[in-house]
Amino acid sequence: MEFQVGDKVMLKVSPWKKGHTFWQTGEVNPRYVGPFKVLERVRDVAYKLDHPEELSRVHNTFHVSNLKKRHADEPLAVSLD
Questions:
Q1: Domain range for residue 60?
Q2: Mind listing the pLDDT tens digit for each residue in 10-24?
């Protein structure tokens, strides 16, 4: 899978189930959060994302396997509040 700078992507949250709870909203935990804008491609399999201040403790570079392209018909992002 490949993304371009400026693409909107969704971030898979399951890798952090045991360590981070930033996505929990009191509802069913989502599999993906976002969308986030791709800022830069880092090597062949990683991308740097523009993520909100609420995620400042989470590194902003992610392996392509943790990303999926956001489609217009997907629901809006889960609030991080």
A1: 8-69
A2: 998 864 554 455 555
